[in-house]
Amino acid sequence: MANTEPLPFHLCLAGPTASGKTAAALAIAKVVPCEIISVDSALVYRDMDIGTAKPSATERASVTHHLIDIRDPLHAYSAADFVRDASSLIRAIASRRRLPLLVGGTMLYFKALQDGMDDMPSANAALRAEIEQQAQQMGWAALHAELSQVDPSTAARLAPADSQRIQRALEVYRLTGRPLSALQARNHAAPPPQSDASSNSAQALLSLEPADRSWLHARIAERLDGMWARGFLEEVRALRDRGDLHPDLPSMRCVGYRQAWEALDGKMPQTELRQRSIYATRQLAKRQLTWLRSMVRRSVIACDAPGVLEEVLAQVDRALEHQRAHISPPVHRSP
Q: How many helices (H) and strands (E) does the chain have?
């Protein structure tokens, strides 16, 4: 039976890809006794290290990390899985008198933890296969156009190539006769049982966002070049050579992995791989920033400003001071 008690206080650190979340989290860990909970739909997968910018062994040894390397790439990990696992970890970490520090860029996970999971129909294998067959015949852009007719709100926030979410939205509509957006609105009308609905004391959200988008674009390109130099294409080739994985799995749909797989399959020239990967990562960052701007209670920190780590620590101090009365037992910054 699910624990419906309010969650203990936890600090969230979010931001788009390449915004410096890992460095900021490690800076926090040096001065606040904490454990890090990864909020990243790609870091859960084993053997996907380079392309996910997974924290190094040294970084993970310096502070306890959770929800990294917990799934084989063959097996999906859902937002519901995350809410269950993160809620349990938040309670366990708080019981050890440490601060649960949630760090990542999968905004759906943050939102699901904050707002609760929607009461949605379970996946229907036969219907999913039917939608997949239609996509093969018509293309995902055509199915996105179909979705825009029955659920314009959901279609507006999805890219025409976002096959996984388009499929789910059409599946929900065909199973229930109601748009996904309407079901989400209904379920979000009431506060989730695991949150403190009477106040926002259970959570503080710090958001790393660039004032200059070109700074983030340069960071994305630099990071991708570093990945290629460290053998990212060989990492994808090893996953592909396993024989049991395919490009439609959620793990292989991760940005970078999808493009590399297509290049290895000969569906795009490898000379185009870098530019297409940069473009896809920029689009991911754009979606992440759009999600963040919808989270009105966040505290924004300019990740491209001088002294960003000092500002992060100052914001942490303010969050802990403001929430001190709601933390039991209290967590203090080290002198």
A: 14, 6
